[in-house]
Design brief:
By secondary structure, the protein is mostly beta strands. The protein contains 1 helix and 20 strands. The chain is 9% helix and 46% strand.
Length: 279
């Protein structure tokens, strides 16, 4: 009896080990197609870096979770070269640039329009009460073709699709219905071996590729990178290595399509990584 029980337990442990290894292969090791080309460690003031936007002369405009400040990080000198205050303390999650105007997203869905953001006398307009209380937004991107901002909801999405909302820059008003719906039952998620629910995709950033028009959606909880076609249909999914991307929060593109991802300092130094996708 004891011998039979021993083999049953041994079999269960082997099964559990196999499942765990399979889980690790998806959530820990990450895709072989994601290559890290360069890493910049962030200074203490950007330990909570949460949003990034690349612009001229290899510079990154960035925000962090706590302060209403736009930090200018120079990739060439590996240093913060300037700071521009635009609002008081808050949970700021995303930034995108439209010419000389910066738009910053707070987690409750409020949008800050920072005109002439690189001027100490910048003018800030706040658009608040756009969404019901209790929401949690993290992703903000500029959709040039439709002259609107894209806002990615991290939590409370429902169990069928992940909504992406729009903010019309012509009227400066929220678009009532989601402009994109990412279905959780799409085959692109088959490799994750997860229940098809809101937890399968919790975006931390959304950005449009300047050359292809593809929409990139980043997740930091279980790090992954989802690529949608210009119409919003899922095209490719890449799982990111959890050790390399411990809390992936920001995503932006260089002028030639280079990909940059920022990680908050989760038990280590925050950083910005330049990555490439090898197909």
């Amino acid at each position: 009896m004891n011998k039979a029980l021993f083999f049953i337990v041994l079999g269960l442990l082997a099964l559990a080990g196999g499942l765990y290894y399979s889980y690790l292969s998806v959530t820990e090791e990450g895709s072989d197609h994601i290559l890290i080309d360069q890493v910049w460690e962030m200074p203490d003031e950007l330990e909570e870096i949460s949003g990034i936007a690349h612009f001229g002369n290899n510079k990154i405009a960035s925000v962090q979770d706590e302060d209403g400040i736009i930090f200018i990080y120079d990739l060439n000198s590996s240093s913060v070269t300037d700071e521009f205050e635009f609002a008081g303390p808050g949970d700021y999650e995303g930034i995108t640039l439209v010419g000389t105007t910066a738009y910053v997203l707070r987690s409750d869905g409020a949008i800050f329009e920072v005109r002439n953001f690189r001027n100490k006398n910048n003018v800030t307009l706040e658009y608040k009460d756009l969404f019901p209380s209790g929401v949690n937004f993290e992703g903000l991107g500029y959709d040039e073709e439709n002259n609107r901002l894209l806002l990615a909801l991290k939590e409370k999405s429902g169990d069928e699709f992940q909504p992406v909302y729009g903010f019309d820059l012509n009227t400066k008003k929220k678009i009532d219905e989601p402009v994109l719906k990412i279905p959780f039952d799409d085959s692109v998620f088959d490799s994750l071996d997860q229940k098809r629910s809101r937890k399968i995709l919790r975006p931390s950033e959304i950005t449009i590729h300047p050359q292809t028009g593809e929409i990139y959606v980043l997740e930091g909880v279980n790090p992954k990178l989802l690529i949608l076609d210009p119409s919003g249909n899922p095209r490719e999914l890449f799982v990111l290595n959890k050790k390399q991307f411990p809390q992936a929060e920001g995503l932006t593109f260089g002028s030639s399509g280079e990909i940059y991802i920022s990680n908050e300092g989760k038990g280590g130094k925050a950083n910005i990584m330049k990555i490439s996708i090898e197909k």
